[in-house]
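Annex B. Sample input.
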Amino acid sequence: MVCDANGVPLRFLLSPGQASDISNAQALLDQVRIPGKQGRPRKRCRWLLADKGYDAEHLRQYCDRYRMRPVIPLRTMKRKPKPGLPRLFDRPKYRQRNIIERMFGC
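Annex B, continued. Sample output.
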């Protein structure tokens, strides 16, 4: 499910229980239309806040392609370090993720 900063659901996708959420993330993000001012609705957001389950390189590359900033914590499993600068994690911005958790709770 995708919601805006106010907790209003924008789009959701049902998938089988055994399928991981990351496998349908790009398809869900492609269907989002963000309502706003007059004219054509925006299709992409500025920030993508997600939990550790969405930590995948292909989702981060998708965000880079469409100029979205992913705020996704890294998983704790050991990996080989990637060359170049590490991605920064914006902890204050990540705290806003509780909006979708509260939306599920309603």
